[in-house]
Amino acid sequence: MKMRSYSEVFIVGLLAISQVVSADSTVPEPFQGFDETSKYVIKYDDLTALLKTVVVDVGRSTREVAKSTQAKTGTMMKAKIKRTTANEANRFYFETFKDNEAGMQLLRTIRDSLEQLPSEVSLEYFSRDEQLAYWLNLYNITLLNEVVDIFPKRNLKKFLVGKKSILSKQLLNVAGVPLSLNDIQFTILKNNYDNNPLVMYGLYQGNIGGPNIRRSAYTGRDVWRALENNAIEFINSNRGTYSSGDKSDVFDVSSLYDRNRSYFPDFNEDLSAHLLEHLEGYERTKLTNANTLKPDINDWTITSLSGNYREFGGSIASSSAALLDSVSSTVVNTNEGGGGPTLAASVGYGSSSVASKSMVYNRIDPDLLENLIEINEKRMSTNAINSSVTIEELGEFPVEAEAETADEKKDQQ
């Protein structure tokens, strides 16, 4: 087997191949087979290293509304934000890829290696869960490549909906089959996974109003647990569900559900049942009493660190690149000892406030700075409630290292 530099296929045990074929002929033949007894796994160390470097986990939503923005010094203009969702959704450090060809090449390399994998090792040798993790990771890294090219444009609506959507373009060729991101979701995943709506929450869209991007790649071992966690986070956020209190018989939900109606044939009944499996608190009562679901919650803003905060001319120098505490220079570091290149960056999540660093005031738009402080305070508050969970783990179900090692030893016996 050819050695791979990025997403490597490792044999962790002997395999007796037993092919199972999907009954739905619309799924391209190379993607129909799977083997539930397979012990083959796909490793995503490169993708996880990237995500841990450039994804900021903001924690679970508190459903608090962001503060109103103020006009910058020297201008009457101010950033227009959607206050109900401005502090939600994990952020991707798109800013670091601007004019950074080496960083963009790293993204392309990871995408290309995943795209080529089924040409070297047929997917039928893997279990259903391993294949699901593969498709989610390929989808997300492909989407990231597209949105990095779109940045610094803030509003992604025209890129995500309509005939010219990046989701409908055939961006990939997997095992000789041209594929769009919609092909992956609505043909392969829809049919191979019994139209399970949880799959939807693993497909990052690049906008605040969509499912979270995680700080680690999906793996076959914990893919369903990760999807469940993403669903809980999204449904219990203002960008997923919201009760304004204006009409007791109407419950507002994300337009994401409207664009994914194929998961909910009887929209009101099926979606209500799905949401009630995960919804908590006051909104659960409101949903139970509602007669109609209204999919009108939108936030098309890119999930960059600067998010909703546009730059307006003024006397204060500003920069769209910022982190919650500190960032060192970001470069591509080639590790000649193996494992391929990694994005070398240092992101601090210390307990000190962003405002305590005087240099930040000269580099960050005041509105953005205030927003980042809000997010940081929310993270600290959420962490205090979940005292046994570290900031890095908020919003994710990590696989314990000891458990993972034990499983690997068991597989090798």
The gist of it:
The chain is built from twelve helices and 13 strands.
Q: What is the C-alpha radius of gyration, as a whole number of Å?
A: 22 Å
Percentage of residues in strands: 5-15%
Whole-number average pLDDT? Answer: 74
Number of separate helices:
12
Shape: globular
> How does the helix and strand content classify structurally?
alpha+beta
Major sheet details: 3 strands, mixed
- The percentage helix is 25-40%
Task: Count the E strands.
Answer: 13
Q: Can you lay out the helices and strands and say which pair or pack?
A:
Blueprint lengths: L8 E3 L28 E3 L2 H10 E2 L34 E2 L8 H20 L7 H23 L6 H4 L11 E3 L2 E3 L1 H12 L30 H13 L5 E2 L7 E5 H4 L8 H10 L5 H8 L2 E6 L28 E2 L3 E3 L8 E3 L2 E2 L9 H4 L4 H20 L15 H12 L1
Parallel strand pairs: 8-9
Antiparallel strand pairs: 1-2, 3-4, 5-6, 7-8, 10-13, 11-12
Helix pairs in contact: 2-3, 3-5
Describe the fold and architecture:
The protein has helices at 45-54, 101-120, 128-150, 157-160, 181-192, 223-235, 255-258, 267-276, 282-289, 358-361, 366-385, 401-412, and strands at 9-11, 40-42, 55-56, 91-92, 172-174, 177-179, 241-242, 250-254, 292-297, 326-327, 331-333, 342-344, 347-348. Strand 5 (172-174) and strand 6 (177-179) form a beta hairpin. The protein contains 12 helices and 13 strands. Helix 2 (101-120) runs antiparallel to helix 3. The protein has 2 domains: 9-236 and 299-412, no CATH class; 241-297, no CATH class. The strands form 6 sheets. Strands 7-8-9 form a 3-stranded mixed beta sheet. The protein has a two-stranded antiparallel ribbon with strand order 1-2. Helices cover 34% and strands 9% of the residues. By secondary structure, it is an alpha+beta fold. The longest helix has 23 residues, at 128-150.
